[in-house]
Each structure stands twice: as structure tokens, then as C-alpha cells.
Amino acid sequence: MSTAICFAHSNLIDTSNLSGGSWTVSYPLTRLNAAISGRALGMSIARSSSAAEADTIIDMDHGSAKAAQVLFIPAHNLSSAATVRLERGTTAGGTDVYAGDDLPAWPFTPLDNVYNGRHFGVTIVTPVATTARYTRIRIKDAGNAAGYVQVIRPFLGQLFAPEHGPTKLTHDWIGLSAVDRTEGGADWIYRRAPLRAANLVYGGLSQAESSQLHEILRLHDTTAEVVYVAERNDRAFQQQYGFLALLRELSTLEYPWWTFQGIALGFDQRGGAPAA
Question: Does domain 6-160 have CATH number 2.60.120.260?
Fold first, then answer.
């Protein structure tokens, strides 16, 4: 199966100093890097004071050069005309490490053209990993009908993409809705947005890849965020099927072949993103 199916780990947001743009007092930029283990995702919202490009910049200072390959914005109010650019440099605002391009925030067209940024995140996967102290997220959405840009804390991290892709993959839903019946048979419907899930099985991990994954699982357990990257080369497919996730109950590393290891991984989407 395709090696483009992978996941991102080691989010840099909580250990980075944030600046840039112009953000409201009620929803300042600093809300984005408040550690949220055990807290609702919707508590980490930033809202710009206007939709002007100069007001929607997010600058990260990682303190020292850090590796990253995946940017993911889990929830937002970006319009269908918005673009997002990732830049990385050795100086604040620099692009000497990675300049990036203005990429559409909406490569995927949802059914009936309902652009729900609460459900569909924005993903940028760079061709290779880059190492830099400074990262800039440049959002262009001057025509946003709300008059401002709102985002949930972004994910900037590394990519785990083994040479051999998974041998098995399923995409699933976590249904949260309920239907009750009265004594007379009438139905009472409690509609809640479903969350996405994915399950994959790696069957041919090298010793080096198994070692790396073993460390990722140790550090993330089932409480630290990862990003399920459904397709690293197709942004529309990734927007439809990819998501910010927590790892489900961790399985054992097995040896289906000598010197190669295998493991099953489950990803459950993080819920609780607020409406734009």
C-alpha cells in the first residue's frame, strides 16, 4: 500500500514563542501554545483583529533549530478563496531554509459547497524535512466574510513515513449521535457531529523505523496529539480524510519476518473544535 499514508508527531507549538500579526485581546496568539493535554481543544483559539494579511501572520521561535515537515491547522474559519504559506528560516521572518508557496486552504470541495472549517483542517507537507529556528505561517484571506481569521492551535511536527506503507488501512466514523424512542414509538434524535477514525497495519518496518516508532509511542502514549496524514501527496484527499488525532490503545511490536517488525495503530480524531 502507498507510502504516502503516514502520520506526523512531535508538535513544536507548546515549546515555541509566538508573535506576529495583530490578534484580539479576548483571543490572543498566546492561547495557541497553551498545553492542552486533558483540556478541550476549543480552549486554544486565536482570532485576528482584521482579515488583512499583515494581521494574520503567525511567527514561531523554537528557541533553537528544530526539524519539521508537516503543518496542520485543525479548525479555522478560512474562506474558499484563502491561501496558506509555510516559511522557515534562520532569522525571524526568514525564508532561507524553506520559502514555500501560497497553497489553497481548500483543495477539497465539500458536498454542496459547505465549507466547514471546523471539520476540514488545512495541511501542508513539505517535500523533505527542514531544520530551522524560526517558522512563519502566512495566511491570506482578506475577503473573509467574518472580517477576521480564527484558528485553532496549529500542529508543526515531523513525519513518520516508513519505506513500506501499511499492509491494511480502514477509515471509520466515531458516531456520537443517538436516537431514542418513546413508548408510542416516536423517535427523539440527538444530532452530534461524527468524528473520523483510521486504523492501519504496518508489516515491514526496518529496525531503524521500529526504533523510531517505539520512541514516538513512548513519548506520545494515548494523550499527546499526532496528525493522521491520509495522503501526503494529494492535499484534497488529505483534507477529506486526515485529522488531528490521539493514538488509540497501543498494540505490541511484532516480528512477522526476521529483522522486520509490524504493528497496528489506531487514530481517533480530537473533537471539540468550536464553530467559526
Answer: yes
